[in-house]
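Section 4.2 – Deliverable D4.2 (structural model, holo form)

The reporting period included a commitment to supply a predicted holo structure for the target in complex with zinc ion. Inputs used:
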Amino acid sequence: MNPLLEISFRVPFDQIQAAQVEPAIDELLADAARRLNETIASPEPLHALDTMTERLEYAMNVVRHLESVATTPELRAAFNAVQPKVSAFYSSIPLNEDLWKAIQRYASTAEARSLTGAMKRFLTKTIDSFKRHGADLPAEGKARLKEIDVALTEVTTKFSENVLDSTNAFELLIDDEKQLTGLPPAAVDAARASAESKGKTGWRFTLHGPSYIALMTYLDDAAIRQDVWHAYNTRATAEPHDSRPLLAKILELRQEKARLLGFHDFADLVLDDRMAHTGDTAQKFLDDLRVLTEPRFREENAALESFAGRKLEPWDVGYWAEKQRAALYDFDEEELRPYFSLQNVVNGMFEIFGRIFGIRVEEETGVPAWDPAVKCYAIRDTATGATLGSFYSDWFPRENKRGGAWMDSLLTGNPTARNPAERRPHLGLICGNLTPPVDGKPALLTHREAETIFHEFGHLLHHLLSRVEVRSLAGTSVPWDFVELPSQIMENWCWERESLDLFARHWQTGERVPEELFQKMKRAKTFRAANMQMRQLGFGIVDLALHRQWDGQTNVVKYAREILAPFAAAPLPGDYAMIAGFTHLFSSPVGYGAGYYSYKWAEVLDADAFTRFRQEGVFSAAVGRDFRDKILARGDSEDPAVLFRSFMGRDPDPNALLERFGLL
Ligand SMILES: [Zn+2]
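Output (structure tokens):
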């Protein structure tokens, strides 16, 4: 029996073989196609639509997960073989004309019109989504939409290749050790290793993150910094990797697509089903935040220039800011590590959120997993004793595991269904690549790593505390300008003295973080915060301007440069072309296009929502209950703006974010 064919709460991770993947997925695709036909034939297609891909989804979740945490060449090949078939199946659903007719037929019935709550929302969202995929267009409109989508895929793929190729085309070789002055030893070693890997002598620098950032932050030689900064900010502007003509093409295609589908512009199309809803709302949000940030931004830049004793160029800013930071705060993040042993952080976190949200986390033993380092836990409701779900945690790097930290869901249950026969627990997981234990000491984390654990646990609770009867709207399946609220808000408990004292204890002495160190850590957080915020706001504003206001004629690079200039700490030179390398916006048909504002949007939500805990108590079970019932339990069963309002009693207020960064 192929274990991928049957949904099992205790996933037999130790039995799944790469050779089982293709036959299982082929069978499940056939099963899903059969169910799709049943859905079309059903007088009430909504419920069937919600569950028709459940088995396929489970198997793909398990396979994708194993490929991320315990990959082998065979497993990767099997995953790559099924992935295109599966995504082709999913993207065919909103284009299925018979299904569209079945949904419309149902929508016109008295039964559909009397729907309430999550089912009503599911119907509306399904209809809107079909329309956004062109379901209502006449034949020629559908054909044109298809052409646009194909063209967008081609042009954005080319854009992304150009950025990568032009990034890789650059290298700086330094032969004279004296020119390396200022760089930390780790950066020098990395540059030496990079040269050796290319069979060259000396030190090699590139435009990739770690190398570029180290040069801009530490290298004393301003002329070299200028050359490298210039190379970075003119990437993809020369043959054979010139992306400038592609920018205009992408913007035109996106605009045409939006108009074809009945929207004013691409921002309105993309934001239609997000919390912001319209480009106008996103724009106002960024403009307001800009006004509030600008005074402090100017102060910071004046202070930096007076510290440097000279007028600064763009390639000087990072360098002098680092010197200023070191002079103002002699704060070494490494000093905090002994207070953040993994064990203490995790247990303290369970204790804190157990109290706040009325849950109990208990380790489960003897559960099959993919690696001996994995732990499994159950989450129960403290009041009723009901099991809400289980989750795995896998925190350390391995060669067969991908990088980064993430949360994922394996099964979407319904642990509190009205009908006891339908009650099923949720299953999820959280993974990371944290500092592993060395020299017989426990794993000692940075403060940022502790925040990462809290962050992923927030996503996990959004999944495990979900009480939504419609699977498609449960847990973390929310608009992406809302999805980071439950995760980011949890990070706040890593910054409050009261909660920190519960888990940040010296691993040998049990002492709390000394007050002086705690204050330093808080001060360092607000250093040049207005500059960081202006940078994000500039990207968000240029993104919306390009997708809402660009006239189709003006040179895109020049247009973007003029918009970005007031957000930069130093005057931008005439050939500044950062936009030609902005892969977030242009390396896929949608990507972050018209959505860059989401970063700040989510930060405003989390900072603002946390003020209720600040005011009513960081351990307040009453506020916790409210957050659990009105946000965590609700998934996408209601408009996120309504959910937020039901928790806060009003719309989001940016003041809390300004206060967090000392900008008030
Ligand atoms: Zn996240």
